[in-house]
Design a protein that fits this description.
Blueprint: H1 2-8, H2 13-62, H3 64-67, H4 70-80, H5 85-110, H6 121-145, H7 149-172, H8 176-201, H9 212-247, H10 249-265, H11 267-282, H12 287-320, H13 327-335, H14 338-353, H15 357-413
Helix pairs in contact: 1-2, 2-6, 2-7, 2-9, 2-10, 2-11, 4-5, 4-6, 4-9, 4-11, 5-6, 5-9, 6-8, 7-8, 9-10, 9-15, 10-13, 10-15, 11-14, 12-13, 12-14, 13-15, 14-15
Length: about 425
Amino acid sequence: MIKKIISKANLDEKLLTNSVYITFSRFSRYFLMLLFTIMSSRYLGTSNYGALSYYMSRLAIISLFFTFGADMFIVIQISVKPKKANTYITENIINRIGLILITTIVIILLNKNFKILDFNIVILLLYFSYIFDSFRTVADGFYQAKEEMKYIAYIELTRTLLLIILFVIFMKLDLGLTGLAFSYFLSTLISFLISYLIMFSKFKVKLLPTALEQQLNLIKFSLPFFMNNIVNVLAMQIDIQMINSYMGDIQTAYYATAKKLIDIVLVIPGIICTLLLPRLSNGSINQKNNKKIISIIFLLGVTVSLFTFILAKYIILLLFGKEFIYAYKILRTFSIAFPIIFLNAYFGSLLSAKNKQKVTLLINVINTALNVLLNSLLIPTYYSNGAAIATVITIFTTFIMYVFYYLTKKKVLYNEPN
């Protein structure tokens, strides 16, 4: 599937090799994560699984402040100036240390008057898991920029397998949510250590002296990516936050279950964008290649959409059982928008690679605000499926805005004469 896109777009052999690694790892990881979701949801039940989904959703939002949008920026930095990789790695690591400390202190201070996070043992373990992940993404950015996707593939698979093995052990000990949180903690810690060991030993990355001015410049330049990321994550996580607020843990569990299946579908555009971002950044992909890529991505989305819409009910029953049957409505609603979701992911990467983060930010802000408004109107009447309907509407409005900008500015994007 991914090979077909690359060969038809006339891209080279290294990209093809990387596509094999990243495709295998992402699909393997997400199918293993599906297995983990099935096991954990059946073990915890709708109420506890809904509570876990709510915790993870809130931490996903908070963890954005650990990186301040530098994850994608580091890929572009190293792709454009590979000789400065050591400098960029150092800046990003030190930057994360500072941002994590500041974020943690702010949460502790705000907790005195507002309940941002209830630091029980479960949330503490999950909190540190997100910290380890934020450091691991520095190494991932390095491997992606160097087009050494096999290391990302190995580490992703290792992390997921560890998560499942540890969860089975803690499940046998009947530790409940605490055991599941320990599984996340240990698997993310080990994968973080492995990724840095490879980066420093095999690729001889060295940490260099860095000044405060460099750290501030990194924050300044990554700010558009941060704003885009926070809007994107809010768009993804606000549904769970609002469903939990309006309807409680059980409706949250239905939505989170369907969303896990949707995450597997989103592996396809995610792989494509991961592989093509360095090429989009350095201008290797021209307008002719771009048209072919867009056509194939759309056809993939249509195929997956039809398959999911027809089999949604059977998929939920088979994987999660009757307790989660309501989730099929949510899955079916989302499936309508799959072709457009695929295209939105690509257009977003294209604009980011062309340093048009302000455009993507504006589009995402408008549609996130629209999503919140629609959620408030639809969730009280249609429950968790109302959030899905709201999201589908904003997916289409996002696409309209992307296409309008692309059609009016494509000559500028590709530095072509009028």
